[in-house]
Amino acid sequence: MNWGNCVEVQRSPGKVSGAWVFQGTRVPVRSLFEDLEDGATVEQLLDWFPGVSRNQVESVLEFAAASLDIEPGRMKILCDQGTPGPLRTHLSNHTVGNAHAIPPSI
After folding, report:
1. Fewer CB within 10 Å: N-end or C-end of the chain?
2. How far does CA 37 lie from the centroid of its chain?
């Protein structure tokens, strides 16, 4: 992904080994995706990384969603209550479900 077109991130060779970080912080963008994958919510991430704003997180998620090169309607996505509304908007061409709507397995 070409993060160079996302205004909420920056990269500098002398900062966090040149990793893409949230603008004005030392928090790697990679951390957002790793923590979300591990089950964290956006609220938790904002608590853990106070230098990162909700706007930055939403912008990065929107950028990532818009960068997906997937044929509309071909992806099934499961969201939780922490999924930002703007991200859901970008996913409108896909099948999007809510985690709380899935019945527990027997």
Report:
1. C
2. 10
